[in-house]
Design goal:
57% strand, four-stranded antiparallel beta sheet, 59 strands, 2 domains, Neuraminidase, 1 helix, mainly beta, 1% helix
Amino acid sequence: MRGWGHGKAEGRRGTGLAARAVIAFIAAAPAAIALAAPAIASPAWTIQPSPNAIIAGGQLKSVSCSAADACTAVGTNLGPAGLNVTVAERWNGKSWQLQNTPNPPADTVPVASPTLFGVSCPASDFCEAVGGYQVATVGISLAEMWNGRAWTMQSFPVLASSTSADLFKVSCTSARFCEAVGTYNNGVGETLSFAATWNGAAWRLQRTPAPAGVTNVFMTALSCVSPKFCEAGGNSIGAGSFAMRWNGTSWSLQTLPGGGGAGAVSCVSVTFCEMVGFGGADVWNGSRWSPQTVPQTAGSASVNLAGVSCSAAQFCAAVGQYNDSSGNTLGISATWNHTSWALRTTPNPAGASFTSLNAVSCAASSACEAVGNFMVNPPQWQALADSWSRNAWQAQHVIKPPTAAASTLNAVSCVSLAFCEAVGSHPDSADTATVALALAWNGAVWKIQNTANPLQAANGTRMALDGVSCVSALFCEAVGQSSSPVGGGAEVWNGTRWALQAVPGGPLTSVSCTSAKFCVAAGGDGHVDTWNGKSWSSAASASGFTSLSSVACASASFCEATGAGPSGDEAERWNGKSWSPQSTPTPANGSFPTLSAVSCAGVTYCEAVGSYTNSSFSVAPLAEVWKGTAWAVQPAPDPAASSVAGSASLSSVACTSAKSCTAVGQYTLLVSNFTLGEVWNGSSWSQRSTASVPYAGLNSLSGVSCRASHLCTAVGVTDDAGQIPATLIETGD
């Protein structure tokens, strides 16, 4: 039995630790803590593994070079499964190569956002990388070591008084000495700094001082020249930026006189260090820090320098970003010649709205590597690397790790146990446009298909699919919106490939086919197109809608369309030539009804579902039935009725007979979001126990199709600990 569905939903996001947000600029936040879905005594739905589209990604947070042809960069990425993973890349003098890095095990509670923020490589066969990850809202320190062959995770001690801790910087002088600094929460509302030292065998915690009266400290800078001399820097709320010195025994506070802040530090001896930050710098001469001036770019209020590296007292390179007069964030660099700082131009990726150079490492005055990330619209991070040689920066072809695109499924149509089609959209490989997504079920697994996408237009959208209808494994129609030409879009499946079709009018939201020679597609504005087996043509519009969302046909002379319309007119009927409005009742004491989807088992039986506002001013599920003469309201279970902050709605419905229909959607309880499934047995609607991804900020089903009674497939969208929208497919009754 064919099924149609269409719907959109937005997720909720939590917030990350304050320290992580400051250090990482724009950090992925942990998913909202999910409440347990109410138990329903009925057959359960189960989630099927479903693929997501893959595009380039990555953020590089730090880099360290032991030689001009030996550099290591680390950071984070949203992996192909949509989960954050750590990233390490190696520069061999000719190209960047991706390395395998371990990630914290996700035992019973998902691990969120593992990130490597700092790396230090005193030799080609030894590196230390540090960072952190989260379990629920708790930050946990992360340390990894490179031995010349592989990365391994290290055991890192837990500060006794901490409730949460992250590492941000590390500096090593040999494989037997490293210092790392980070930030921890002490459980009484204070965020303070801490340090740790590596002796070649284990990490040992160190206490660090904090400026007087300060309760919020963020460590951002560290550089060591020997086990007896390190300089660290940070920023605090209340006392501003500060520096700390390690003398081999303890840490002591220092004053930073400049206004640049402590973004990064690099030391070449006990008598020379450079500290850079927001629009300024400080220099250490062995006894005190002195302020320095860094030139400002024209049209910019300040330059934020996030990384610095000195190969000698006569040469340093600093990198960061600034905002231009148009509001774009661009990469920037400055160099020190022992006398003054001078701004340098850095290559910025074309079309990027945000470019950040996060770190730099110089093996010599003629050999530096800078790393960072950039973002285009829609937002998706991509890794970035630049090289310094012959007094100029040049862009490098850095490895952009594969990352899951923000994939969404809007509709599904199944014709047998061995064939279903699900459609939606995702960003393209350059992450500059939205393209069509199609998944096929072959009876065993879901696989991504190649879709036909037109050339990109100025509005960014190439093709997005919102509806699909299949009559066999050899014929499906999928519709949506296209950018070439701008307006409606359609693709046809012939059993082998998807092909673009010309379709008149604007964007289309739904399609229904009774055969390979007859289909009806409708747009949100009520315009209608029909397929005759050879081409699409305009048909009479269903003009009574303010928003048409779904269409279902039982024959070439009978179709139903539903949506939102004038009060009491949320449905229209097609007789083969024209549309006529139908009266649709509103539930008692209710208002603002919307019928999001419709499915017809015949010309005398259709079910429509959606939502309305009840007497408590909450959004509740709505179901109505057509029995050949009039629409009538049916009571539909409301799983959110007991919550003052709850809401529920149905987005799609599929009927195999007048005694078997399945509807899906989503509901919320406080800040938690769950999938929703309800079943009609010929006399009443009852709720089914659908599956929701644990700890996700978003769980929503937008389309459903049933091959037979109790054999249904539903599709939609979820997210996971990586906080990226991902495909969601469930099967059940």
